[in-house]
# Entry
Amino acid sequence: MAAELFINKLGTERGNLDIGSVVAALQQLLPTEGGEVDLSSLVNQFMGQGGGLASLASSWLGNGTNEGISAAQIADVFGSAKLNSFADHLGIDANTAAQGLSDVVPSLIDKNSEGGNLLGGAAANIAKDVFGKLF
# Structure
């Protein structure tokens, strides 16, 4: 899901990207546990930045409208070294990678949260199934 969203976001700039290479690159960039995205750690990366990024993450967790995030803010959260490695793995420039991630990250969090909290219980199992397919 995230890999497809990323590829679609890039449009004509995606070159010859395939799902497998994007999944592998996302696994290196995003926090994972047991091969799956660790959404709690991902949210904490944004919350830990404080200020505006914490409010952005809160909007993705909530049921209301999701606030957008810029490519520059994505670069701040992940750091230039990790972002450059992600982009190099895919054969694209770091700005293009950050722009693509600016859609993917909010969508991942939004689709796996409700009412300001990450999904738990049966809903968490559904999320794991979705991410299991992603990775």
Q: What stands out?
A: The first strand starts at residue 32 and ends at 33. The beta strands are 32-33, 36-37, 113-114, 117-118. Residues 121-135 have pLDDT under 50 and may be disordered.
